[in-house]
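Supplementary material to the annual report.
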Amino acid sequence: MNAIRTFRRTFVGGYMKIFDEGWGKAKQRMKTAIKPGPGFDVGWNNPNMPLNNYDIVIIGGGVMGWSTAYWLMHKVPRKARGKIGLNVLVVEKDPSYTRASTVLSVGSIRQQFTLPENINMSMFSSHFIRNIREYLSVYEDDPPDVQFNPQGYLFLATAEGAEQLKQAHDTQVALGAKVRLFTKRQIEVKFPWLNTDGIELGNYGMENEGWFDPWLLLMALKKKAISLGVNHCHGEVTDLVVEAKPGVVEGRLCKRITHVKVKMPNSIQYQNVKAGHIINTAGPWAQDIAKMIGIGQEDPMGLDWELQAPLPVEPRKRFVYVFHCPQGPGLDCPMVVDPSGMYFRREGLAGNYLCGKSPEEHEEPDAKHLEVDYDFFNETIWPKLANRVQAFEEIKLRMAWAGYYDYNTVDQNAIIGTHPIYDNLYLANGFSGHGIQQAPAVGRAVAELLLDGEFKTLDLTRFGFERFLRNEPIREKNIV
Amino acid sequence: MNHLVLGYVGLVIGVIVTKKSMVWRVGQVGSVLLMLPATVLVNMNMTISNVSYMMTSDFVSLGLTVLSIWLLPLMLLASQQHMVSESLIYQRVFVGCQVFLTGALVLAFMASDLLLFYIAFESTLLPTLMLITRWGAQKERYQAGTYFMFFTLVGSLPLLICLIGQYQMVGSLALDLSYEGVFQLSYLVNFWWVGCILAFLVKLPLYGVHLWLPKAHVEAPIAGSMVLAGVLLKLGGYGMMRVSLMWGATAMLSSEVFLALALWGIVVMGGICLRQTDLKSLIAYSSVGHMALVVGGVLTGVAWGYNGAMVLMIAHGLVSSCLFCLANLWYERSSTRNLSGSRGLIMIFPLISLGWFLMSLMNMALPPAINLFGELVAMVALYNWSPYSIVYMSLGAVLTAAYSLYLFGMSQWGNTMKNYKNLYTITSREYLLTTLHLVPAIYLIFYLGLMF
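Predicted assembly:
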């Protein structure tokens, strides 16, 4: 007995303990000595780490990223998915989407644009949303539903703006949008709660316009894309590695993005993902991605002059306020857009309304944080609300939130296409507030551009990056 | 000839200890230098080495040994582009894997003892598995590695058992002593022979057990594809030749079953190739078709069949390896292997189109390429075995020509893809690679001593 106790005390309690301590310390020292990265395994396998080679890397897991991923897999026949070089990785740095534009958006869809491409994109998207069960159903799962309320948009115009509204209406009708012009008298009859002082003309979308839940659309796209074989990881893209080789043109190098450095969350571990094609759908932070490869910086050698044109996307903060008005317009309240840019719509069935306004250039809020400025509501929006609808004089502000527009500072329209220098970089940025309603169409367009080499269904070449090089901005007049 | 294998051992050590800037130089220059002792082998007589009693070489092993030695610097040349960004230790392991693989192959082809051959045969498995699963491109490479490993292992276990059985019956496994064949007259000796040959049929591969090949070839990196298509498949053919001679004609009773599968395989693989959308997959399936003809040639048992199979193996090694290099060249620039995504290349890369052209023509056995001579000789042997086989062989030849032209036409001609604006020029490294494949292939046209 005594011998066993002594044995246990000296051997197990003594030598083994010393050994375990020493071995543990040695392991710790080894771990800190070896610099983490793709070259060495630190001893703990991060299950979130992506593989080291993908054919297509989509930077940004918002609605644009997942829409593109879905359409890429959708275009490939089933037995060839993943086999003929279509491994897709979606990298998202915040899967809870706390600051993403997609989930903080109001989720409206309208065909009332002036550019034909915008109108066509929204028409396809509304068709997509209406038939979302055929597109995005996953086997053995509940069919997706985005709560589409096709209530319509009512654009109001004063006497000065009536001519432009009529021209826009003609463009929209020519492309097949179901919109109808209302005179002042007709508006008064249809919407008796609306105050038509100063209003000359109204353009109302009868079908395919309204609002839906952007979170549900994002989740439906994500689920379907994952079921088709798209890989995703939670990580942040910190760098893009470029290789430059001599090409056919004398003196200019052919540049290609070869690797994407994806950093793991809360860690210094990163993976050097070898990427064949890279799609930038990073939303408001698209310019950070572009800056990593010198887009927008002076080229010291002066050879690649196209690099001087930056990707003109920056985050702009916009507020959305929800208020309650018991005597308000009621169930037939569409999304009303005031000539001043203020908009409001019904939210739910309990007498709540949602409103907002794009601030003027001089009163742009600080985009470093998502704090809500209630003075903006009290001083700028509420007077206009009260002016437009009598009942809105007595309201109670329930809640508000702020989100980012991925604002295209040049012409507030989408940037879709390849970059002239890096031709395995695809861009889908700068939607400036009307991205969620163009997401299905944009995803399909980028997928066609990547897989077929050109746009097949909707020709969006006018939205390419080259317009900044040629200084030919495309202006959209109906910006909300 | 033992010093040749020691040379490779030294090269592995050299790759491990040299500094970072010299790793690839040591690998490439060393492997080129190791070709000089290989020229000693080119005397086509059966030689027993005076350095070691374990190594012999006769005309069967000569061609394949030189082929595997020749392919090592080409493999290193082809893969240095995509290995540039890896960390140093992984580069060392990569180069070391290939050198070790070539050393094991040389040992296998020059072994004079069947058990040594078996050991070398098995030891080529591990470096290839490492190449495929670690440096392959898609995530399907894990499944490809599993298929490759298990097919080969399941096939080679009967080989070990039957070799040991043969040792028990005959008393020795040395090759130069056993040209007589096991002299038994019962039909049971057939099963011993089938057990031996199963490993090689899986390795070749025969049509029914070929599933691992498209997966492994497609998922492997360029070096892996080159060595797989160029040499490892030929291990199967070589092994079949050695083992069949050992057991004798009485053992090859069921050769007709495998011959039938092989003949059918030629036709079916021709058809499958015409339906492929992946560039590498097409070349991989064409390998199965060519090797099916090799199986046919060997299993006839006559000298002409052996000659034809030998020449076909050497020719196919060079042509297939070059085609993989060319496909990889395009893949490195465009990140796609899809045939419909790589059209009109003759307008972008005219000179390397010459490489595509010559290799596609040689693939479909156009005279005067040696592929034709190999096919012709093997076909004559098969016709001698059965006149009805001419149906399958001619159909196979037509389909081979069809898919070779399809490969060339789809990739080179047609409307050039518009979304590739920034493709860098073909480097001289890639031209050298293609030339080094073409030069032996064209030189061998004039070296008829290979066959007769």
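Chain B has a mean pLDDT of 88.
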